[in-house]
Design a protein that fits this description.
Number of strands: 0
Helix content: 55-70%
Distance between the termini: 34 Å
CATH class: Mainly Alpha
Largest sheet: none
Structural class: mainly alpha
Order of helices and strands: HHHHHHHHH
Amino acid sequence: MTPDQARQLMHEWTPSPALRQHMECVARCMDHYAAILDPGNAADWITTGILHDFDYEKHPSQEEHPFVGIKHLESLGVAEPIRTAILGHATYSGVPRETPMSVALFACDELAGFIVACCKVRPNGIADLAPKSVKKKLKTLNFAAAVSREDIAQGIEELASIIPGIDITQHVEHCIDALRQDADRLELAPN
């Protein structure tokens, strides 16, 4: 499945502009990490980011998400590594994150959502957002309270197992840089 086909499927299943934006932001971060961890395979990484929550709006329960979507993707012949990474991003799925793609998806998912929340409260959006500001906001537990700080910390820890020495500042910087490159399309630029 190509990223364009993934976007078409996402639009069929996901009416919410905010959820679409989230999946596109995660896909942008995945593209960035593909260049580091799996050069030449960016299309699969982008597709994974676009589709990781495509079934969430229709099937938001832990009993259904992402399992319903995975069955549909399997019926479409979507590659197993993409499906496994999507399963692994749900901590309750029981599917371990054993590939760089799986690790990166989990590490980018919650953080991308948090960075978007940070952009929404800044007059310049992502234009001058710095890792220091994101890290400070992470300590404010009532800001973007639905974002799991534990998942972000665990994601960075897992990412460090495949990118030795990476820390929270570097990971946040990677994601900001990735999102900034496509800020207009992702609606992260100032109005």
